[in-house]
Design brief:
mainly alpha, Serine Threonine Protein Phosphatase 5, Tetratricopeptide repeat, Rossmann fold, 2 domains, five-stranded parallel β-sheet, 5 strands
Length: 509
């Protein structure tokens, strides 16, 4: 191990990724054959938001490791790179590397399991099922692969098979993590089969199990509720008007922020927009949260975000705008050329005050959906553990969190100066062309008939949302009014949701 690699590890442990990247980069420059340094360089660059470069380095490291594996037959290090590529959402690269790895060692169950995950993320249902079946042939007693296969069967429309598999796993006994996932997946399957009376017992069981899992119990549950309270108390019209008259014409046009609440229809809208040749969609990226961190780096005082924005001058605003675009360029590289840039990160809703201050010339697209269908879908969906999704495990907590976010939305939209287009998911489903024609007009884009085939486009790529399977098929209306199948479960929370049902003009019956 070279000195630069050792220093890179030390910097990584200290949390200094910038120094770590410099050390690993120097190690690679000194010895281009140092695969370990190259792989760590890739991971570190991705961690810095420079995914375009980082993924290229990881892929190159994977190629070197494949060549070595062809000599000794050991693909274990190749599979580590596959996992890293999955971590950074390069599922195309993961499929390529994983497929070649299975040709070297066709008896490696883990390789096929990783391949199944990669194919599933790319909406390749048949390939995912085949890889899963091969993994289970090699390791039939792997419970997590069994649960995954049940999920793949459900996504492929094989609901009865998925039901039998998942129920058998639960009957046979699983550890807490496996049982949590199996209950969640089985609830989704039973809903599809119309066995509505059996759904919520599994959702309640999964919520109880989540309280024992460190990936959920270690989340900062107070982070977002506290942020919403602080934002509500701090942001006012005067602050958000502060830079509205500033001249930003020499810069790149401001982003369009596509927001809402989880499971409200933002993914459908992003895929419709992504078909347009003049649009580039950034799917669930953390650019605004990075701007938030940069603001606090610029002003290391203990002041609140609002107080720091009040002290910010025009040069500071322009720095944060440039910082945003630097992050976007590092993430997407040469692909970032379209005239309209859509930043789709659903819960940027919470950061609308910050967005309005830094990008007063931006546009906002807000997608809403019947609050009852939103809460039901959120509770039913398995999501990656985060400080946001930890609120979507328990039924009552889901309703509470929805109420906090949407109360903030109703408050901030009266204060902000941003140009906003608000529409309902149900209108997009029932009146697709008129609804999206109005959206295209708002964005200054010409209508193109190809957007009606959005699902074909979505089926060819990774979509960073649990809705990836739904948006890869033609529009369907079965998700509208889905809550009506569960009216008994809604009785205890109906009072909490009534304000939003009325405010958003949904029927109470």
């Amino acid at each position: 191990m070279t000195t630069f690699v050792q220093r890179g590890f030390a910097a990584t442990r200290a949390g200094n990724l910038t120094e770590a990247a410099e050390c690993f980069s120097q190690a690679v420059a000194d010895d281009p054959d140092d695969i370990e340094a190259l792989a760590w360089l890739g991971q570190t660059l991705c961690g810095l938001g420079r995914r375009h470069e980082g993924i290229a380095a990881l892929r190159e490291a994977g190629q070197y490791l494949l060549e070595n594996a062809e000599d000794d037959g050991d693909i274990s290090l190749v599979l580590e790179i596959v996992q890293q590529l999955q971590q950074w959402n390069d599922f195309e690269g993961a499929v390529d590397l994983g497929t070649r790895a299975t040709r070297i060692d066709a008896a490696n169950a883990r390789a096929f399991q990783l391949l199944a995950v990669s194919h599933a993320q790319l909406n390749r249902k048949t390939e995912a099922l085949q890889a899963g079946e091969q993994s289970l042939r090699l390791a039939p007693d792997n419970p997590m692969m069994q649960v995954l296969q049940g999920s793949l069967e459900a996504d492929a429309g094989r609901s009865e098979e998925a039901k039998r598999r998942l129920q058998a796993l639960l009957d046979g006994g699983l550890d807490a993590r496996g049982a949590f996932r199996a209950h969640k997946e089985l609830a989704r399957v039973l809903d599809r089969l119309g066995e509505y009376g059996q759904v919520f017992p599994h959702l309640h069981a999964s919520a109880a199990l989540a309280r024992t899992l460190p990936e959920y119990t270690q989340q900062n549950v107070a982070l977002l509720p506290d942020l919403i309270r602080a934002n509500t108390a701090g942001f006012d019209r005067a602050l958000m008007e502060r830079w509205s008259g500033a001249d930003f014409t020499q810069e790149r046009p401001a982003p369009v922020f596509l927001i809402g609440f989880f499971r409200s229809g933002t993914t459908l809208t992003q895929e419709v927009l992504d078909v347009h040749p003049d649009v580039f969609v950034a799917d669930e990226t953390d650019f605004i949260w990075a701007v938030h961190r940069e603001l606090h780096r610029m002003d290391p005082s203990h002041s609140s975000t609002v107080e720091k924005l009040r002290k910010l001058d025009l040069a500071g605003v322009k720095h944060l705008r440039a910082f945003y675009w630097t992050r976007a360029q590092a993430r997407f590289g040469d692909a970032l050329v379209s005239p309209v840039f859509i930043d789709k990160f659903t819960l940027n809703t919470i950061d609308l005050g910050l967005i309005n201050c830094i990008f007063p010339d931006a546009k906002v697209v807000f997608v809403m959906r019947d609050p009852r269908d939103v809460c039901l879908s959120c509770t039913m969906q398995l999501m990656v553990p985060t400080p946001a999704t930890v609120h979507l495990l328990d039924w009552q907590e889901t309703v509470n969190f929805y109420g906090q976010v949407m109360t903030w939305w109703m408050h901030i939209k009266q204060q902000m100066t941003l140009d906003c287009f608000e529409f309902r998911y149900e209108d997009a489903v029932m009146q697709f062309e008129p609804t999206y024609r109005r959206l295209f007009d708002f964005l200054g884009l010409p209508w193109i008939p190809e957007v009606t085939e959005f699902h074909r486009h979505a089926a060819t790529k990774h979509v960073a949302s649990p809705s990836r399977s739904q948006v890869a098929q033609p529009l369907y209306s079965s998700s509208v009014g889905r809550w009506r199948h569960y009216q008994a479960e809604f009785a205890p929370v109906s009072a909490s949701l009534r304000l939003f049902v009325d405010a958003f003009n949904y029927s109470q019956d």
